[in-house]
Amino acid sequence: MAKEITPLQLFTSYKKWVVNNPGIVTDLETVTTWSSYFIAGKINKSPIVSELVYTVSKLISLFNDRVIREAYDGEFQHYGFRDQVKLWLTIVHYCEVFIELTVKNKWGNRGKWVATTLIQTFKCGSALILLYRFKELPIQHPPIPALQRKKFTEERESDDNANSYFTLKRSGRVLRRVDGAPPIALRDWQRVKIKDNKTTNTEIKDLVHAELLYILRPMVHLAAMRAFGTTAWKQWLVALGLDLASFKLYNRHMKELTYEQRIEISRRKLGFILYLLRSPMYNGYSKNVIENVLTSMSNKIPAMSFVCDPIIRYLSHWQDIYFYMWAS
Length: 328
Known about the structure:
65% helix; two-stranded antiparallel ribbon; mainly alpha; single chain
């Protein structure tokens, strides 16, 4: 008689497979994520099904990242309150569009706005906790980024050689550990240099205010849409003004930011392109320009018709779903 396999055994086997085959797992996740875009318009209620496939693929990817991280770190992982806040923020980030579409399909636009307000209130409150309690800024989007698995699973070295030196208590002199020194051919025989992370109170206040404006922008924009309407220029200009004010404060201290922080700020700056796809800019100006450009590309380059035609067909539909201030 065959031995019955329990769910726990299946779960354990799955985790081992993920750890042993990170490349295959990544490829499968990529295929699943991209399949969500091809589903659009092909089946009944395709936006909801498409978002469901996308959401599930991202949540599975998030879980697989954690499995790989725990396996390769080789030590017990303690997830404190900060990690839990970031985890739930990331989960909501991947699920919010699917939730909005599902609620709208069942309870209409009024239900959608209620769900949107609740989601953004949670995101805003959680981000404020990360900002003021844990001094994290800028907060990444999503808070837990996708793991670079190939780089992570290879032999890693600490960027700052944090464990390769120690400080003498009396003199304060920094000395390199024997086992932390680089190979002889790569040694420069210079004293260890420690980064100076001191920042002034003015810099800290500016950075906190910059991040606060970015965090509050979705809530302020929702309030402006409630007051002026979803297609009014006032709500569009309010959100744009908050973004510009936030970037102006960040730009004052870009040299003091780390590489990862500057990358996040650059990602946010690219988000300005989305203002062309948001009402009323999209309805009044961008729509015709984008459609004319795509049509011209489709006519001049035959192969591009397979890409441009679906975009032209579903652009207005996607604009209605994705290009809101709070979902970007």
